[in-house]
Design a protein that fits this description.
Length: about 60
């Protein structure tokens, strides 16, 4: 999903465009840097030692909406 403040999440041109974009995200907000860094921190920790070869999607639920 789009992550704010990274250039991966273009700024909407109008409030209407912002509303349409957020309507597609079940969590109702854009991704934040801390959403990604929390996952990276977990994957680098011993708590994820049995996780291998899987894709983790950080998109606020957009893929299932």
């Amino acid at each position: 999903g789009g992550i704010e403040d990274t250039g991966m999440y273009p700024v909407p041109a109008t409030p209407e465009e912002a509303a349409v974009r957020l309507a597609r995200v079940p969590l109702g907000r854009g991704g934040r840097l801390d959403d990604v860094s929390a996952l990276v921190g977990f994957l680098l920790s011993d708590q994820s030692s049995f996780i291998t070869g899987v894709e983790h999607v950080v998109d606020g639920g957009s893929i299932i909406a």
